[in-house]
Amino acid sequence: MPKYLYRLLVFSLLLSVVSVASIGVISYFIASKDIRKKVNEGNVQILLQNQMRMEQILKNVEMAAVQYINSSLVSDFLYDDLHNDDFQTINNLSKGLYNLHSIEGVADTRLINLEHDWMISNLGFTSTEDFPNQDLLNEYAKRPQNLFWLANTDSVSQKNNIRLVINLPMISSTTEAKALLIIDISQDALLSNLAQNTQLGSIYVLNRDREPFLSSSSTVRVQPSILQKMQAALDQTGYFETDAMAVNYRVSSYNGWSYVSIVSMEAITKDSKKIAFITLNACVIILILIAFAAFYGTFRMYRPIRRLFTMLEQFGGESIGFKKRDEFALIEERFSSLFSTGKDLQQQLQAQRGQVKEFFLLKLIMGQVTESEFSYKYETYGFGEKGKALGVLALQIDSLEDTRYLDSEKELLLFAINNVVAELIPADCILGTLLLDQSQVTLLLGDSEDPEELKGYFYQMAELIASKVHELLQLKISIGISRPFHRYTDAMDAYSEALEALKRRISLGNELILNYEDIETLNRNRVQPAASWSHFEECMVGGLKAGDATSAYEYFNQYASAILVKNVSFNDFQTLMLQLITKIYRLVQQQGGTLDGLVGTKSVMIRFMKLNTAEEITAWFKTELIPPTLAFLQGRIDSQYINIAHQIVELIQDKYDQDITLEMCAEQFRFHPVYLSRVFKKEIGITFIEYLTNYRMNMAKLWLRDSNMKITEIAERLGYTNSTGFIRTFRKAADMTPGQYRESHSRSL
């Protein structure tokens, strides 16, 4: 099978397989998700119904019990010292007590007088000693609640494990009850009201301690992992999955019991598997149909390619290695061979001509071409008319500050400027353009022989270039203009004159067009450094050595400004800055580093010598030289004292309950507080105050959880003058008050 036909067929099949498989998988997951959602919704409704039925039974019992104890008979004789002789009173109390048995779910009732030691139950009028567990009576009497429900999970020790206890009197100022009304609820009666649905799993009822005491399925026990998650649950309703089980739960606000529905994931996904089987069969059938359509359509689409391929084979034999490529490779090869050969040769010749011309001009500027050699090659490279006067324009970018360009784009900008100049000036007015050492150089041709007219003409061309560059690129540039000359070999001297004119920017400013003839030629004595210069220089080096960035930058600015105020030449300014670089180099070397490595260049000196203005030099110092030097020296200083942070941590852990401050640490370690704060934040990651507060709050949590100390005592031990400040800080750290924190942990225990 041809390779392109094979690829086209495989692509069609892969495209269809991916599409159909994606649709099938998405459909299956959507259906599976809907099934699980409906099952969960059903479980939630069943839980709600069971909760309402069971709570209705409990509330009926509770209401009947309250009516009984509020009756005049009970309120008149409950607290009396009754004996067997009080037959009529005992009979009346028993009759009302037995009437409670008619309520659904009531299995047994007891009316107990704790003061006079008598009890009425199904055994008749007896002593309280006949109660099975005297400790339970004492526990019930001491409870602060007057009415509460209990659910006992021990079915061996007690027949009825669901109980309502009412402490009497219900409205009393005393702490212990005088009498008790105890009603036991039949577990079987509650189970009969607990809905059972094997399809939706089992339903369990948990007491306040999250222990199961009722279950719709007596054979299935609650898994320990489910109980652990229920004990940790904080929401009133919720859903979670664990150990291949899906669990829905509701926590009653009435008595704190939890109603839990547990169903296996396998039962939920049973219908999903059927959907997956049907979806898989449908996808397979669709893929088979698409495969047949892909085969037929691919062969029909390939026919025109096959005819073109056969035609090209007739014009030229099969190329070497064709069997390893497809049909389009041979077609591309034939077309390239037929239509591109002549054009490629012409473009290569034109490109080489431009490069050779630029190289020849570069040799002319560098003084490496003789007059006779230039005259010989003049017409070959298409230069302008012979005999005209010449002039050199040297263009440099003043600064890239406050522009949209980066320093790394400077060479690209010069290249763009070179193209702009070449297109702007007519071909008969220019000898050529080139880029040379951070400058764009233009060799102009002049029609006049008058030096003043030539000077004005060159200045006019420079203004035109500056205006166009500003219009297109919005750059700050300056242009230096040489004196007119006639001998081509004088181009090197003219280039030097244009550069010398540009160096006057140090005193005249930027965005200038300077003519060499206008430069003052007064002899200047060599600039001698003033005493203030040396002072600023020494202070700057001292700031670097101490790692003080503010001092280093401040004294550098004063040093550079003091030099520029003296109206020095660019060469003198460059020399003074070289001396400063040498001192910085020596300072870094003494600390075991290299300045070239810090700045990230092969040679700092070479990079410095490419800077053409005082602004570029000062900006280079501030952005490329001083920052890495400061970082290196600060690192050396910080590494010697970094263990101070760990000593401060140990001090906090030893004296957290005392009045400890950063100033006290600074006095002990003999360092400035600001320095200690910076070192501590850098090493530990947080401030001194944050660490001290966090440590104190952690100790407070430990005392709240494991001790009986009062909140005021904890606040006093942690150094707080009043508990209000401690509570505010604790709330901010733990999102709850100390009392809430202690209550939540005591409840979990």
Provide structural commentary.
The chain starts with a helix and ends with a helix. Helix 18 (570-590) runs parallel beside helix 21 (614-641), helix 22 packs across helix 24 (673-684) and helix 25 (688-706) crosses helix 28 (738-748). The strands form 3 sheets. It has a 6-stranded antiparallel β-sheet with strand order 3-2-1-6-5-4, with helices on both faces. Helices cover 58% and strands 13% of the residues. It has 749 residues and is an alpha+beta fold. Mean pLDDT is 79; it is low at 319-324 and 521-528. The longest helix is centred in the first third of the chain and has 67 residues, at 3-69. It contains 28 helices and 16 strands.
Poorly predicted runs of 5 or more residues: 319-324, 521-528
Portion of residues within helices? 55-70%
Shape: elongated
Strand content: 5-15%
- For the record, give the distance between the C-alpha atoms at the N and C termini, rounded to a whole number: 76 Å
What's the tally of helices?
28
